[in-house]
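Quick check before the chapter quiz. The format below is the same one you will see on the exam, so make sure you can read both the input and the output lines.
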Amino acid sequence: MSPSGPARNVEFGASEHVRLNLVRGENARLWDDQGRAYVDLGATHGAGSLGAANPEIAAAVADQGREMVYLGSGYANPVRTRFLERLLSLLPGSFARVFLSNSGTEAIEAALKIARSSTGRTKIVAAMRGFHGRTMGSLSATWRRELKEPFEPLVPGFVHVPFNDPRALESAVDESTALVLLEPVQGEGGVHVATEEFLRAARTFADRSGALLGFDEVQTGIGRTGRLFAFERWGVVPDLLVLAKSLAGGVPIGATVTTEEVAERFRGSHHSTFGGNPLACAAGLAALNFTVRERLPERAERLGARAREVLGGLPAEKIREVRGLGLMIGVEFRGKAAPYLAALQERGFLAISAGSTVVRLLPPLTIPEREWEEGLAALLEVVESG
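Here is the expected output.
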């Protein structure tokens, strides 16, 4: 146990308010240093999709740690090979190459470099409200002005169009476009779901112009939306697929997946010192196997449908919309979301925001149904009493 009292804030860039000091977890429950339990409705930001201390992830990391903790990517390693083969086996046959890194923002950076190098073009078309990371390239693809202004000038060549507007997308994608980069469900941007029409239009316009189509599935991938990969719902297959967060059950990892044709056209080099390290690959292999074996995408679909049924009863005078797919749900309020998040925390439930007016629910895909129902009931209670 840590000493009692609030955690001292010594992290650069950390929020200044007093934060919970969470010291351990079991599936969807987290405990603070005072012994109080909370239910994770989003505290792990979607990365903890298999629970806070999944025994199979822990065992895989421990077993691998006794064999080899680190190895440079210039050498072959059995666990990395097994992880890559397992990942590709779950994807459409057009995907053939994977670049491994340590996070979603790094995986986006790799996608940007791959797209520009393999096409010989520079223009990147992304969507308004989109979020792709906080490094200089991924931040350039991100929409929110307040995230970008302190660090400008950013990387040139990025254009943003309204989400779910095929006509605007058609106008933006031309023969100078290297990449069309989209989230099938915008997470940080408020949990907005792409329409099939928009994604199919993106595929058509990319093909017509010779650009690549990239899907950022950092948050939506690995079962979150009720499919193993969100794009499966619409049958629109990208040229570049970006994964991270829950890919290794909460262990840091990022993956940029692409086709053989794109890989063959790539010129230059890209590298990550810790990308594809044995510990992360062991966790990733265990996470993929667990997710498939336990049929977690199907579970997310069922529990998500239940949530939208329950939350559909929220009062219209306080709620604009409930939206999402699977266990990726956004509740948009007519006012600020912060008071409702605070009220949930007081009741022992931890959710997060997606912009100033949206409460975002991203529980572990393994959350017990009773705890999920209790979380939904708590949200109804704080809305009705707020």
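If your answer matched, good. Residues 369-385 form the longest helix (17 residues).
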